[in-house]
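YM 10:42: 3'-5' exonuclease domain-containing protein sequence, as discussed on the call
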Amino acid sequence: QAELLGISVSIKEGEAAYVPVGGEGMHLERDEVLAKLKPVLEDEKIAKTGQNIKYDMCVLANYGVELKGVSFDTMVAAYVLNPAKRNYGIDDLTFEFLGRGKTSFKEVVGKQKTLAEVPIDIVSSYACEDADAAFRLGGKLKPLLEERGFAKLFTECEMPLVAVLADMERNGIALDASYLEDLGSGFESQLNELQEKIWRTAGGEFNISSPKQLAEVLFDRLALKPGKKTKTGFSTDVK
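YM 10:58: structure's back
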């Protein structure tokens, strides 16, 4: 449901352009701009690189543009290179792989509620910086995927999923509510049976979810040998 405020592009390091189509200040007519850009955006032969490009695909689709030729997502590439990272935002990736900082979204928006309320000159500078960073990151991450043997995984598995996930986010997925209700009832029945079995083995009812009560049953009532000791008592974890 995001509003398309503008489009920023970069085709060369250090150069980027921003076309405003909404928000504060002067801007071009959105429909006219999209009509001009649509042939390029929908051309599969023109490769596109982006950061979290799935989001761009969803927003453009809301305006009748099907983004094609999507070949590289810097966020997905960073994930493939290191799935254990906590943050794959463009600010973090720019610092990690390009060795420099960049203006953050929070710095741009400030006390404003939305990006649409920010003056167009500030938005333009921020958007161009983002586009340039994504372009540079693409050039940096592609060879890293090759060097570390992840190029095939990225190209054949991860990138094709981007379009699929974009469609799922826009259209939703169908669920069989009746089947899920039956499944839930079945799981609940199994859990109740397991609970009864545990109580019979323990010789009485207790709160299975309580580590304290569980420890009393295991180590006092059943006299099992305790494992490692924690700050609150013996651990009841099982590996």
